Amino acid sequence: MSREQILIEIATADLETTRQAVEGGADRIELCANLSEGGTTPSVGTMRVCRESFDLPIFPIIRPRAGDFLYTDDEFNAMRYEVESARSLGFEGVVIGLLLADGKIDLTRTARLRELAYPMEITFHRAFDRCLDPYVALEELIGIGVDRVLTSGQFPAAPDGVDCIAALQNQADGRIIIMPGSGVRPDNIQALRKQTGCHEFHSSLRGWQESKMNFRHPNFAKQKESYQNPFIDAGEVRRMKKKV
């Protein structure tokens, strides 16, 4: 596999971190809000400005809240509208993930979102890592036309789940893309590539930078959310790309 075939997807938290990831040479963006909570659907305004500002593939996450991946009817309806919004704005794909109470994939609703999203691509996110049986789930997702699975191999971080990821890559056999994510960093991406055989990788490279506010209210001066902003080091994105 040549270096040119490796794709780096960066998860971003807002307009500015998206700009930083693009500056670093990201191949694709997973656009989120509330990335510190695992990512929720970005606002329509954020989606629209990102679509107008950047010409690389952008996949908004469609997730109505933080927490588990078991959704009510109202939450699912919100997801339907959000998929339709993403499609109307011209995005290349969306990122979804839905489970049933027994830990199986919610195939009926996932298939419905697949239909609504067409012709956009579908990535099934790390809800997959909370499913009952990843090998059965993979065949189910292939069966309904999902394009890609983002997974850390059913562990909190991909380096710990590397054996599962490699097995999923082997099982996929070119029928669906397996994309390792969570804990993917410049210093381990080359090893993950060799151990798994995967060619797409996902990372957030999350950090914080000091606010440019001059006035800092003394009662809030030590609170990170008041005077620090999400940050992606473009240099780290470039370093990750060079590593593979």
Structural notes for this entry:
This protein has 244 residues and is of the alpha/beta class. The protein is 36% helix and 18% strand. The strands form three sheets. Strands 3-2-1-8 form a four-stranded parallel sheet. The chain has a four-stranded parallel sheet with strand order 4-5-6-7, covered by helices on one side. α3 packs parallel to α4. It starts with 6 loop residues before the first strand and ends with a helix. The model has no long low-confidence stretch (mean pLDDT 96).
* The CATH homology group name: Copper homeostasis (CutC) domain
Q: Using the coordinates shown, work out and report the CATH topology.
A: TIM Barrel
Strand residue percentage? 15-25%
The H-and-E topology, N to C, reads as EHEHEHEHEHEHEHEEHEH
Helical run tally: 9
Task: State the total count of DSSP E strands.
Answer: 10
Mean pLDDT: 96
Which CATH architecture would you pick?
Alpha-Beta Barrel
Strand order of the largest sheet: 3-2-1-8
Shape: globular
Give the end-to-end Cα distance, rounded to a whole number of Å: 10 Å
Please summarize the sheet with the most strands: 4 strands, parallel
Topology:
Layout: E1 7-12, H1 15-23, E2 28-31, H2 44-53, E3 58-60, H3 73-88, E4 93-96, H4 107-117, E5 121-124, H5 134-143, E6 148-151, H6 162-172, E7 177-180, H7 189-196, E8 200-203, E9 206-210, H8 224-227, E10 228-232, H9 234-243
Parallel strand pairs: 1-2, 1-8, 2-3, 4-5, 5-6, 6-7
Antiparallel strand pairs: 9-10
Helix pairs in contact: 3-4
